[in-house]
Amino acid sequence: MGKRLSRIYTRTGDRGETGLGTNERIAKHAARVEALGDVDEVNSWIGHVRAALGAEHAEDATLSQIQHDLFDIGGELAMPGYELVQANLVTELEQAIDRLNADLPPLDNFILPGGSEGVSRIHLARSVARRAERALWALHDAASEQARPESERVGVQAVQYLNRLSDYLFVLARAVAQEAGGREILWQTRNRSKD
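^ Corrinoid adenosyltransferase, sequence as received from the core. Prediction below:
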């Protein structure tokens, strides 16, 4: 890391702008900054999940690596044109999903988020990961539609990573529920169609 933060407040954002890693200043409400915020939020939720599960949990090392990967995605957003997320990271998440899913019963219905505090936290992280994915796709597509330079687009691998992350978190929630001996809460609609 080239610079260390010796001073936390700079007052440079007091006029509603923030700086990118490219030294460009943009509005704090710009789509790129919104996407950065969503990625930061999912990272915070994963930290919350880790605190609930504990450092001894089998998935703690994977969750820790995910937090580092999310910082790389933030780096891509802060430095348009840089791609820090490679295809192997997406593949690693897929392998983690397959590993967790191997011991789970088949799923016949939708699951309600909840059942325990840990499972609830994981579902919150999952839903924020989905929001972050949508924000990155919107940023990617806007750059494409406006014929903006390739360097302003979001790397597709980063978006795919967020997609797999939400899948991983869904399967992790199921696995944690099973570990605790809890049952999954299946969706039951009150709307019964007349046959």
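The chain has one domain: 24-180.
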